[in-house]
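Tip: read the tokens left to right.
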């Protein structure tokens, strides 16, 4: 198979195992490209990509922009905070105005779950979901899977625990879908108040004790506490959260085996993870950032192949 089964990347839920494997294989080639002295390829020359970020983003936006420039695409950046959205313009009108300028592909982050799916039904351009509310963040899950595969080989049978604010995390949901499609076992760990009800129905294990979860896993993905999405208090204090669910060097070194440590960023150092752990040789956080550019290059390259 040399092409994706979908016209858009709206979520991991909507793509097949073969799609994921194709993206990860293509990303391997692009990782070689971005490590060469000349990092540019003409793969997306004459393709125009619009980055529409209705929510703040640093790493994802930079990563997509760098990936687009490495592929020689023409790039248009759109920040909602300084746009006509503030004057009451609808999402579809905003995007249609941008597409009237002959844009081929839209990378969109939006605070509303399902915004990318909604948009894909309304406009002709290829849509890549760069995060929709607390729903999905497909490219983050793909780069996480790529990073684990890079270190451990095949994901089949590997045990991955996702720790922290599962309830508000689009990274958690996309990771669960992606890891399971690739044959990994997934566990979530965090305070009961931050574990969604009925999450076991997705086929994941639930563990409330961090040490037990870490002893079980091969890889721990430590999530940020998303205070900006929490309209009520889900735990007494950050200090108490850190005491129960923060990963420090003492805990990491006391485990019976070595595990990989991941974090989607931005890191709240000293809360979910200590600086020593983040900077340790078991951490692959910076590799995730590098792999993110290669994975996003792969996604855009493969979707561009479906532009008529």
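Filled-in amino acids:
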């Amino acid at each position: 198979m040399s092409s994706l089964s979908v016209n858009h990347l709206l979520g991991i839920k909507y793509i097949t195992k073969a799609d994921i494997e194709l993206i990860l294989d293509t990303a391997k080639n692009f990782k070689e490209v971005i490590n060469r002295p000349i990092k540019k390829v003409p793969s997306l020359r004459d393709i125009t990509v619009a980055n529409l970020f209705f929510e703040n983003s640093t790493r994802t936006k930079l990563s997509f922009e760098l990936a687009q420039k490495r592929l020689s695409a023409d790039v248009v950046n759109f920040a909602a905070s300084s746009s006509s959205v503030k004057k009451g313009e609808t999402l579809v009108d905003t995007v249609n105005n941008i597409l009237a300028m002959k844009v081929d592909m839209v990378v969109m982050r939006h605070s509303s779950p399902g915004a990318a799916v909604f948009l894909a039904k309304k406009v002709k351009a290829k849509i890549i979901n760069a995060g929709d509310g607390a729903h999905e963040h497909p490219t983050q899950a793909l780069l996480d899977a790529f990073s684990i595969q890079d270190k451990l080989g095949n994901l089949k049978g590997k045990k991955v625990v996702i720790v922290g604010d599962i309830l508000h995390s689009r990274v958690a949901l996309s990771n669960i879908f992606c890891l399971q499609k690739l044959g990994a076992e997934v566990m979530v760990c965090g305070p009961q108040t931050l574990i969604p009800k009925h999450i076991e129905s997705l086929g994941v294990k639930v563990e409330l004790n961090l040490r037990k979860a870490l002893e079980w896993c091969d890889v721990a993905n430590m999530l940020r506490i998303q205070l900006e999405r929490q309209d009520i208090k889900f735990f007494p204090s950050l200090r108490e959260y850190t005491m129960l669910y923060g990963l420090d060097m003492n805990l990491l070194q006391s485990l019976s085996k070595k595990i990989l440590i991941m974090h989607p960023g931005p890191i709240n150092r000293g809360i979910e993870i200590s600086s020593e752990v983040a900077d340790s040789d078991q951490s692959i956080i910076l590799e995730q950032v590098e792999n993110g550019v290669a994975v996003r290059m792969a996604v855009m390259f493969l979707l561009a192949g479906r532009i008529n």
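The chain has a mean pLDDT of 91. The radius of gyration is 19 Å.
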